[in-house]
Design a protein that fits this description.
Layout: E1 13-20, E2 26-34, E3 39-42, E4 45-48, E5 55-60, H1 73-85, E6 90-93, H2 100-109, E7 112-116, H3 137-154, E8 160-164, H4 173-185, E9 190-192, H5 213-220, E10 229-234, H6 245-254, E11 258-263, E12 271-274, E13 280-283, H7 312-319, E14 323-328, E15 331-336, E16 346-354, E17 357-363, E18 373-378, H8 385-390, E19 396-404, E20 416-424, E21 443-447, E22 450-455, E23 459-464, E24 469-475, E25 478-488, H9 495-498, H10 505-511, E26 517-529, E27 533-544, E28 561-570, E29 575-583, E30 593-601, E31 606-613, E32 626-633, H11 634-637, E33 650-653, E34 655-659, E35 665-670, E36 677-682, H12 686-691, E37 703-712, E38 736-745, H13 751-757
Parallel strand pairs: 5-6, 5-11, 6-7, 7-8, 8-9, 10-11
Antiparallel strand pairs: 1-2, 3-4, 12-13, 14-15, 15-18, 16-17, 16-19, 19-20, 21-22, 22-23, 23-24, 24-25, 25-30, 26-27, 27-28, 28-29, 29-38, 30-37, 31-32, 31-34, 33-36, 34-35, 35-38, 36-37
Helix pairs in contact: 1-2, 3-4
Length: 761
């Protein structure tokens, strides 16, 4: 019995062909590597060697950052290494047959492939008077020539499991002819074609592009449809994108008839170009004086052109991981979703965390789990249970990881292929956070246009009652905050925010004048003062401004929001900011964010936080990010998308500190019953991220802009040309209330200790 080829086990044999003359002399000798495998169909299934393999795929254009469409083998190998390391097992050659060496490498590394004919007729969608080529007999021979050439050239490659008749070329009689020829020539593979609605007789796979989750589930459950559904394109990776991808995989993992899909796409198709300053930068449509051009619409990759991964690739690795872990009804279930490999070559480990601090770690001994099998553990019988039982933490998280024991062709031993974090039950009911007051005395002064609150030489806050904002917050004589605290509803638009023309989120935001809000103080007063605290009440209205950033007549009457903020300042230096937001209109579109903004001195560039991380994550793209304690520099938080926009956020943040190298700084956390925050900090202002069209054009400000959001809209990604953030990640324009705690921090204290001090026991 031969060892069969699959993406999990890419077994190859050396095939040698010898040509001899009549006398037995060798005239020629050729060899190649071949794989033996079977592709077949079953009701609602595509089978490889009899197994309904799951396609964890990506579309790939041939692209080199310097040479464009010229192929270099080292670049192909790099692609395959990164794909395999991120659990990608399939590639669609979009949208043409690729370099012959690519197929040999896919055989070698183990990559299922859809090989696609070089046929696309997008332009005819705009032509009213010219008959579509697929319905034109005169085009039949040319289309057939391309399909025949592809099949005959590539037919011996084991990696190819399906032939594609081309991309986005409508549907007509010529496609019927192409499908008929392929089926007559090669019964060992299936035929794929999306055109005509992805369900024509010319495709063996239902292969829609950018179809919504609920619609693919509906098709899979249609008893009259006997073909499997594999998305030929989904999760459009344009800039800060790939939101909602976990929802696709929740459906795929639980719905018979869904067999995966191919993300659009692998690499940002930009080229290195010398700038006016002599530095190289990523250039895209229009940067070469090219007219017409597609601007940045070829920047849709999971990686930058040099194959540096976007943060979203980590989310892809997570939803594509072959070992799944879940906690349900007290049982920890570990599932091996592979079809050929057991867990024999894996080492499982666990890490337990309490309130962001590591409680313990160890090797998790498990019996061998076979393909398509699971093993259950009562979580209370695990080696972490004693740590949980003896800890006083409020939140407990358990991370289960699986790493390779042996090196492979694509990675060294020790590579983590799967890692999942689950939250363990709390030991007590979580109660609202409270300040534990101290007997520290402080001084409140009203001096002209300044309200000054200070506590000896430890801290000092100056608030301007004319603007309702903090003009200075000093800790041990060092200025920490130099501007704030403002309400904020705006974000620098992402590519997905811009998609959809007049229906786009950006168009609707601008139509509502949400991009030009000025926060005008309506009232500011010291409400009351005791020997332990002072309350200052500030009322703002958010008023649209004109192009000159001035308020037009009757502007105040057109205020979009009313915001009431109460500062409660304690002798300890703690400041509780209670914020109530009320929209003045019922016709506002979904909001980009609801939160607070303030600016810190640029020296406060050391960030530590307890929340999701360590990489960029957003409400609809955070499955891969684990809750933990992380530390980074402000400059390293920035994600250099080629076209700037909203970026560098971290989700589900409980507390965060911003400190100078001397440890002096400010602490911020959720407070009361407010949920975890979305946090970002950048040397680039929101206005600057919106202004620049290339990352290298960004100009750093002279301070750090911080956002602490009660709500932040998802980034979306089902596509990039319609407003398609899922409802649960939208922020309706309704009233919101939330609280944030701020306080000074020094080298002698830590964010963790301050956070723990406000938890009720």
């Amino acid at each position: 019995m031969p060892r069969l080829w699959s993406a999990e086990q890419p077994n190859l044999y050396a095939l040698v062909v010898i040509l001899k003359d009549a006398s037995g002399h060798v005239l020629d000798c050729e060899s190649c590597l071949v794989g033996i495998r079977q592709v077949s169909k079953a009701p609602k299934q595509l089978l490889v060697n009899g197994h309904p393999v799951i396609i964890r795929g990506v579309n790939r254009h041939e692209h080199h950052p310097r040479l464009g469409k010229t192929n270099v083998e080292s670049c192909m190998v790099k692609d395959l290494l990164i794909m395999k390391q991120n659990n990608i097992n399939a590639v669609r050659n979009s949208h043409y047959p690729q370099h012959p060496r690519w197929y040999e490498l896919c055989n070698l590394f183990g990559m299922y492939m859809i090989d696609e004919a070089n046929i696309e007729t997008h332009g005819f969608d705009l032509s009213q008077r010219v008959k579509h080529p697929t319905s034109e007999p005169s085009w039949a021979a040319a289309m057939m020539d391309r399909v025949i050439g592809m099949v005959e050239r590539d037919k011996n490659h084991a990696c190819i499991i399906s032939w594609s008749l081309g991309n986005e070329s409508g549907y007509g009689p010529n496609h019927s002819a192409l499908a008929g020829w392929v089926r007559g020539r090669d019964l060992s593979r299936v035929v794929h074609y999306e055109g005509g609605g992805s369900r024509t007789p010319s495709t063996d796979i239902i292969c829609p592009m950018y179809m919504r989750v609920w619609d693919i589930v509906k098709i899979a459950k249609d008893p009259t449809e006997t073909r499997p559904l594999i998305l030929c394109e989904y999760s459009h990776s344009m800039g800060n994108s790939n939101g909602n991808i976990h929802e696709y995989w929740e459906a795929i993992d639980s719905t018979f008839g869904l067999q995966g899909g191919f993300i659009w796409e692998w690499v940002d198709q930009a080229l290195l170009k010398d700038g006016a300053d002599g530095r190289k930068h990523w250039a895209y449509g229009g940067d070469f004086g090219d007219i017409p051009n597609d601007l940045n619409f070829c920047l849709n990759g999971l990686t930058w052109p040099d194959r540096t991964p976007h943060p979203a690739l980590l989310e892809v690795k997570h939803v594509y991981q072959p070992i799944k872990v879940s906690l349900k009804e007290g049982k920890l279930q570990i599932t091996n979703t592979q079809f050929y490999e057991t867990t024999n070559g894996l080492q499982f480990s666990w890490v337990a965390n309490g309130d962001g601090r590591e409680l313990g770690t160890g090797i998790l001994s498990l019996p061998l789990i076979g393909p398509q099998s699971s093993f259950d553990i009562e979580w209370q019988s695990g080696p972490w249970y004693s740590l949980w039982a003896s800890s006083f933490a409020e939140e407990f998280f358990l991370t289960i990881s699986a790493k390779l024991l042996h090196p492979t062709r694509w990675v060294k031993a020790g590579h983590v292929i799967s890692s999942t974090q689950v939250q363990l039950p709390g030991k007590r009911e979580i109660v609202p956070h409270v300040i534990k007051t101290t007997d520290a005395t402080f001084l409140v002064e009203v001096l002209g246009d300044t309200i000054r609150v200070r506590q000896q030489n430890f801290w000092e806050i100056e608030l301007n009652p004319q603007t309702g904002t903090i003009e200075s917050w000093k800790v041990e004589g060092v200025t920490v905050m130099n501007k704030g605290i403002f309400p904020c509803f705006w974000r620098a638009p992402t590519d997905n925010d811009k998609g959809g023309g007049a229906d786009s989120y950006l168009s609707k935001w601008k139509a509502a004048h949400m991009d030009s809000l000025l926060y005008i103080k309506e009232n500011c007063s010291v409400l009351n003062t005791t020997d332990k605290l002072v309350k200052i009440v500030v009322g703002f209205i958010a008023v649209p401004t004109d192009e000159k950033h001035s308020i037009p007549e009757l502007g105040k009457a057109n205020a979009l929001f009313k915001i009431d903020m109460i500062y409660t300042i304690y002798g300890s230096g703690d400041v509780i900011v209670e914020c109530k937001v009320k929209p003045n209109s019922s016709n506002l579109p979904p909001l980009p964010r609801v939160g607070l903004e303030f600016h810190l001195e640029e020296s406060m560039n050391n960030i530590k936080w307890f929340g999701k991380g360590p990489f960029e994550c957003y409400p609809d793209r955070k499955a891969a990010a684990h809750v933990g304690f992380y530390e980074q520099k402000v400059g390293d938080m920035h994600v250099p998308y080629i076209v700037p926009g909203e970026c560098s956020g971290r989700a589900d943040v409980r507390w965060v500190t911003f400190q100078s190298k001397d440890g002096c700084g400010i602490y911020a956390s959720i407070y009361g019953s407010s949920p975890p925050m979305q946090m970002s900090a950048s040397y680039y202002t929101t206005a600057e991220l919106e202004r620049a069209t290339h990352n290298e054009e960004l100009i750093k400000g002279d301070n750090i802009e911080v956002h602490l959001d009660h709500k932040h809209m998802g980034v979306g990604g089902d596509d990039s040309w319609s407003p398609c953030v899922h409802d649960k990640y939208l922020i309706p324009a309704v009233s919101y209330s939330f609280s944030i705690r701020l306080c000074p921090i020094t080298r002698a204290t830590s964010g963790h200790d301050i956070y723990k001090s406000q938890l009720q026991s």
